[in-house]
Amino acid sequence: MKVYLNGKLVEKEDAKVSVFDHGFLYGDGAFEGIRSYNRLVFKLKEHLDRLYETAHTLMLEIPLTKEQMAKAITLTLKANNLNDAYIRVVVSRGEGDLGLDPRKCKKGASIVIITDKITLYPQELYKKGLEIITVPTVRNLPEALNPQLKSLNYLNNILAKIEARQSGFEEAIMLDAQGYVAECTGDNIFIFRHNELCTPMQGRLRGITRQAVLESAEKNKIKTKECLITRHEVYVADECFLTGTAAEIIPVVKVDGRIIGDGKPGKNTLKLLSLFKELTKKDGLKY
Ligand code: PXG
Q1: Is 167 buried (19+), middle (13-18) or exposed (0-12) by CB count in 10 A?
Q2: Which of the residues 150, 277, 282, 286 is marked catalytic?
Q3: pTM of the entire structure?
Q4: Would residue 161 show up in a list of annotated catalytic residues for this protein?
Q5: What pLDDT is attached to residue 192?
Q6: Is 185 found in the same domain as 141?
Q7: Summary mean pLDDT of the chain
Q8: Inter-helix orientation angle 44-57/208-219, to 10°
Q9: Angle at 29 between CA 132 and CA 66, to 5 degrees
Q10: Per-residue pLDDT tens over the stretch 4-17
Q11: Could you tell me the residue range of the domain that residue 32 belongs to?
């Protein structure tokens, strides 16, 4: 497997960065998780826009234009001859010293692009639906570390993931500091209720799959709303599902022990899933 590292394609074994890289020392950097389907990179522009927006707020200069970054991604995909892939783009602050001042990282940002086969939830879970729980770890406050930033500091989500796994669940709902549903550890959440598709308006990452689902729902005459959602509203929803680059759209059938709807993946959820699959076949950059 070839990995893109600072302008070169190197073997996986040789893809190494310094232990003085601030990405390693402090989680100082940004990343994106992208997918390609049948040699089309899905929503690449949106992913690059989000990556460069995170970098802008972190005052992290990416030494490639978006066009050059897109080329680096397709180059790596071609080098690994992958038709369907998971793409991880990492931009770290680069090599510095032991102080956290980013100005000490004089060499500039390190860029890593890893492309690999995708690992998904088992296929049967898409048919049966997922059972999830709410965990005690609250999603980062926007005033502290804004969930809109896809930074290398993912400990907030990792702590929630640990809590979910400790209780025997794969995924967990994280609440915001006011107690409203924010999102899951690596996915956005949707509910369908009173003939309306709702998703949290605050405290979450503005997911690219989330946006694609909102747009395709609107196009197909399903009403959508971004609003505040309580746990009660999730429990009494007709349908619930999660969205994310890795998971795509996965139905949720039980939350905190409460059965959602009739306990089976909902018909709107399945409709949106099939619309999403269609979208991945035509929307993307060819390589
Ligand atoms: N919320 C959070 C906190 C995320 O990290 C999403 C929502 C969904 O966003 P997108 O843009 O993907 O629809 C994410 C995305 C992984 C992995 O390796 C995680 C994500 C994406 C891809 C892979 O666990 N998170």
Answers
A1: exposed
A2: 150
A3: 0.97
A4: no
A5: 98
A6: yes
A7: 97
A8: 130
A9: 100
A10: 999 999 999 999 99
A11: 2-116
